[in-house]
Design brief:
Helix 1 runs parallel beside helix 5, helix 2 runs antiparallel to helix 5 and helix 4 packs parallel to helix 6. This protein starts with 8 loop residues before the first helix and ends in a 6-residue tail after the last helix. The chain has one domain. The protein is 64% helix and 0% strand. The chain has six helices and no strands. The chain is globular and about 45 Å long. With 162 residues, it is mostly helical.
Length: 162
């Protein structure tokens, strides 16, 4: 069981914001309108608020993000996409690096659960709003760009589909 105290302040900031970065990866992969963005953001927040398992690390991250949300603080603080054309690459690199930090400090079980959680958050964001079409007609649940990002995220975090 890995507590927040296992990480430096800088490491913890990156670990804590990773679920939101994973959710944001979907919005960056296929930018839509404000309604779509709102749905994806809300789905990310719901997924962050209910981690899929009770490993101490996941619960600690989730609770801190939810507390920040209550205080109206930005859980994404410190993360910035430098080049919008390379946003997907930057997000994947950030999540790879965070997972490496987690793998170095946490148990194997927690690190694997953390990686699966990042993918689950992104999947929930992708499922939140239909893409394309006109007023929902002809729209698809997950766009090609979103699916590509999900696949790249699974590969980067070594999470098998399922």
């Amino acid at each position: 069981m890995t507590a927040r105290t296992a990480f430096t302040d800088d490491e913890w900031e990156r670990v804590r914001r990773a679920p939101n970065v994973a959710g944001m990866s979907i919005s960056l992969a296929d930018p839509g309108g404000p309604i779509e963005l709102t749905k994806e953001t809300m789905a990310t927040l719901r997924a962050v608020g209910s981690p899929p398992s009770q490993e101490e690390l996941l619960v600690s991250v989730s609770q801190e993000i939810m507390a920040m949300s209550q205080r109206r603080e930005n859980p994404m603080g410190g993360f910035k996409v430098e080049d919008p054309r390379q946003a997907g690459t930057q997000v994947l690199q950030e999540l790879r690096e965070v997972l490496a930090i987690v793998r170095a400090k946490a148990t194997t079980q927690e690190a694997d659960a953390f990686a699966r959680w990042m993918v689950a958050v992104a999947q929930d964001a992708a499922n939140a709003a239909k893409e394309g079409g006109f007023m929902g007609i002809g729209a698809e649940q997950v766009s090609e760009g979103e699916q590509r990002m999900l696949d790249e995220l699974r590969t980067a975090l070594d999470v098998t589909a399922g």
